[in-house]
Every structure is written in C-alpha cells, then in structure tokens.
C-alpha cells in the first residue's frame, strides 16, 4: 500500500528553481531516503507533502488524503522535523515540550522521559540560549513524542554529534521495526545507508534515480583491471577477490567493486550544478 504519493508535482520558482514533474511513492512501513544538495528541490517537495504549499500542477497524497486539502487531518498522525528548527525562544525546552503534549492531547510521561534520556537532552534552559544541536534534540523529541505512524524528516541530525547521530539511527530502526513510514532527507550518507530501504536522488528539481540501495549499487559497479606478476598470482588474486582472469592475458584480472552511496550520488552530480 502506498502511504505517500507524489504525482507529477510541479512548482516553478523561475531560473530553474523548484520541482518539475516529480513522481514517486513510499510504501507503508518503508524508510525512504531523499538525497540531493541544497537547492535541488528536497525541501520544496517536503513542504508540499506537509501541506504548506499548494502545487501548481500535480498532487501529493498521504494515507490517500490530499496534502493541501487535508493538511490538518494528515498532520495529526505525522511527525515532522523541518530543515531549519524554529521554536519558541522565550520558552524553556521543558515548557515547549509540555506545550506540544497539550497540543497533541497526550497524557503520561513515559514517552517523553524515554526520548529525553535517549538524546541526553537537558530541557531546563531557555531555547534562545541553546546550541543548534540542543535545539535539534528538542525538535526530535517533539516530532517523535506522539508516536505517529508517519515521519517526514528534513535533515534530522543537523547539528548533532556522532554519538547522537547514532542514537537517532537506532531510533529510526526501532520505528521501522514497528511498521512506521518514514521519509528522510539527509546529507549524511551513512545514516541513509543504515536506515533506508530505497532512495530517490533529485537534481535541479527532477528525480534522476529511484531504487533500492542494493539495486543502485549493482547498477553502479566500478571495474578495475589489475595486471599481476604472473598467471599463478593472477589466479590467486581472482579467486580471493571474485575477479575474472583474462584468458588471452592470464596475468590480467578484472574485478568489480560496489560503490558507496556517496560515490553513487556523486556519479549523478559529477561536479555539475544542483
């Protein structure tokens, strides 16, 4: 079942900025990585899914509901992290999270305590005095607090140290095991690799790749030809590294290596503009 659907979405801001005839879907229970540099159209797509922006053409649907017409109903069951966290500066972290609890109609402290402990958040200080990483922790706790079925996460680990990034990855894996549906935009290729079932790569507002991570790797093999000292050494090398010995040049071996997700991403960009 498709939980999220983007169909022929178009929003043209001029000068090549925006998204153009963008289509993809995310299955229920799937973790989907959305990759692209700044300005490629990731946040524009996410804003349409959140119902913040009305499509010029095309549509976005979550749970079968139109994201623009039914934004309020959709957001009741959705956890969201924006690309730039904006909180109420005059509140303390605890006051803000209490506000979120009241807004969501939540009772009990178990989920709140568990998330605060997981991210080692000290919620007592004023938000305006918090570091970027601490504000990000507040945003993460708020997004996961009501235990929603769907998450839309735009650069969720921005400002977090490696330990907290790993805690986030563990949380995503737990939510995935519970059948949650997650769209995650990130520049952190390792966390996408560790959590996502599929990825979409967007360039200049258009989808240039959409596939399982393993399938992408299989399509982006790098071939290396190595010439060894003698055929016997070449045969050993071919056996050890899964290569193929050239029958016409028995000292020569061809091997194929799978690329990292970051290397595949760079293949699509090749130093060009977003």
Give an overview of the whole structure:
The chain is α/β, with parallel strands linked by helices. It folds into 2 domains: about 1-210, P-loop containing nucleotide triphosphate hydrolases (Rossmann fold), CATH 3.40.50; about 220-270, no CATH class. The protein is about 35% helix and about 30% strand. The chain has helices at about 40-50, 70-75, 95-105, 110-120, 130-145, 160-175, 190-195, 215-220, 230-240, 260-270, and strands spanning about 1-15, 15-25, 30-35, 55-60, 65, 80, 150-155, 180-185, 200-205, 205-210, 220-225, 245, 250-255. The strands form 3 sheets. A 6-stranded mixed β-sheet has the order 6-7-8-3-9-10, sandwiched between helices. α3 packs parallel to α5. The radius of gyration is 22 Å and the shape is globular. The mean pLDDT is about 95. Keywords: ATP-binding, Nucleotide-binding, Transport. Pfam families: ABC_tran. This is ABC transporter ATP-binding protein.
Write the layout of secondary structure elements.
Blueprint: E1 2-14, E2 17-27, E3 31-35, H1 42-49, E4 57-62, E5 65-66, H2 71-75, E6 78-81, H3 93-104, H4 110-118, H5 132-144, E7 150-154, H6 162-177, E8 181-185, H7 189-195, E9 198-203, E10 206-212, H8 213-219, E11 222-227, H9 231-241, E12 244-245, E13 252-257, H10 261-269
Parallel strand pairs: 3-8, 3-9, 6-7, 7-8
Antiparallel strand pairs: 1-2, 1-4, 4-5, 9-10, 11-13, 12-13
